[in-house]
């Protein structure tokens, strides 16, 4: 037991949790804790330029490493700027501990300077939150915060600490155990349910695994691969699940959903058994729920009981840690299949037919024409082929969907994107965080021009903190996905979606923020410039000016059924 | 849609109740009544919620509430397997010539007169919520000036199943 200040206790707690890096910005109500940073800590602090950036960095760190991300900010606007990352982490189940300073206890409730009820504001999007006004609570609350963030279904927690609690003294003793009688995430799996699942799989003729982000969160990639390989099970993988099984794996049928392939959507919708693993029947995957996979029975594996049966009722629910559940399932299944192999040859033949029939496709541009965004992705894919040290991050929109369609991710945690909340601006700071988690990796952010402008100030962080990243802007001069919806569903009335390709000048902006800037206008320069940026040895931005009229296909309109998928219009329908 | 009563044990911590009411608001569940108070264990409160929803929704409500860190236990109180009570205070217009009639009416329901004034009296009634509804209906013609109900509270019956004797007791 050591006598110390609350602010020092916060840092000793972070150290006890094995935190290597935190992302934040100081301010009035968190100053005592920054003073403690000045006194010394083993935790590296990365100074962001905006608290939203700090939060997304912590997310990128968590997603790349599998560890809890830590963001720190002051009260009031510092705290409210963290709300978007907190909500994003909530939707995508990213473990995050956010620490905010709060005004002095005696001022709470008086509308003091920079006072805001941040625990109140974040209530709908945290797993739990604490307002600490008594310095003696700090160690137990910090212990509980990390425990809640990482156990069960991961997610964000908030610890709001009054300034007087940071300034007061306590006898510090970091607890070994948490005292949370109401927090009991499942640690076991019902064996009978697993056996029933195995039986259903063994009997299925057209089974499909539907793998989601839970596989990565549950550290169950190896177990999932073992399952699909041992039973020769085809699998579709969601946006959040991308990289959970290798994209190059012959059993990987790609991504289903709104901008997924017709192949993956057919595989999922025409199956007779869906084996959902850490996926949640999101509306971007199912489209119209009543028309979704009408002939399929559903086995639903999830750590979160509330996801099972939420959207689509599960014939066989299996609640518990995926790692454990999948291991048991594979064992059961192996025994069953030893006696009687699966009868899925016809299904596999059908899938291979669809795979050949429905690849992602786009019309190549004529020589000298505008660069097609898909070509940017193909080039990035090709120049990084065979490398296992690349981590991709994205913003949200068309570029994100093309990245998902064309990039090859074979290593777990190599594709980091904002799925549930769809947060534009996620890509750049998430890349900085991923680089902090994996300094050996090459981190490439594929961004849109609209997204880039929302968080590009964090290039300064990347440059000055020596966390080099490469940002490739698919610059079509528009809020592209919104434009696409206006094009398809709002009779081409392009209200307020035009940004222009020229303002800002992204290469100059990059240079101003301490990064290298490149501009590509012609297809001929694309590969060489991307290679130059990757070899720059410092943070680099490549502004690739692309064809603004290119839409992302295929597309299932929101609320429509998979059969209503819109394919790329035929040649003759396209105005020249 | 059907009625459901849910009994929730929760840690008596700051913000525990607001986390539950927020969950209901955020997920679009409609609370008909909510009553909260201490239990036999210090530091633990019991919340009794009444909701109108489908079977699917009540299952979701239970699962979502289970995920709240301060929530220790969630059970649905099934009508046959639980005891439910509620308290109401009802102030009814009662000029002197109507008092006796009203008090007699109250007697039938076991309603006590909690206060009496020149032109009105206040009944205090405890019973099954349906009994309270019935009483309210009966006194309404006399002019209900103000009414307050606590919202139902409930407990599971100690026995595993409802016996005939228990049925008679309710």
UniProtKB/TrEMBL annotation, chain B:
Pathway as given in its UniProt record: Amino-acid biosynthesis; L-isoleucine biosynthesis; L-isoleucine from 2-oxobutanoate: step 1/4; Amino-acid biosynthesis; L-valine biosynthesis; L-valine from pyruvate: step 1/4
Domain named ACT: residues: 5-82
GO cellular component, one term: cytosol
InterPro entries per the UniProt record, alphabetical: Acetalactate_synth_ssu, Acetolactate_synth/TF_NikR_C, Acetolactate_synth_ssu_C, ACT-like_dom_sf, ACT_dom, AHAS_ACT, AHAS_small-like_ACT
Pfam families, sorted: ACT_AHAS_ss, ALS_ss_C
One term of GO molecular function: acetolactate synthase regulator activity
Record CDD domains: ACT_AHAS
An individual GO BP term: L-valine biosynthetic process
Keywords from the named record: Amino-acid biosynthesis, Branched-chain amino acid biosynthesis
Keyword Amino-acid biosynthesis carried by entry: yes
Protein family (similarity comment): Belongs to the acetolactate synthase small subunit family.
Name of the protein this chain belongs to: Unannotated protein
Species of provenance: freshwater metagenome
Lineage: unclassified sequences, metagenomes, ecological metagenomes
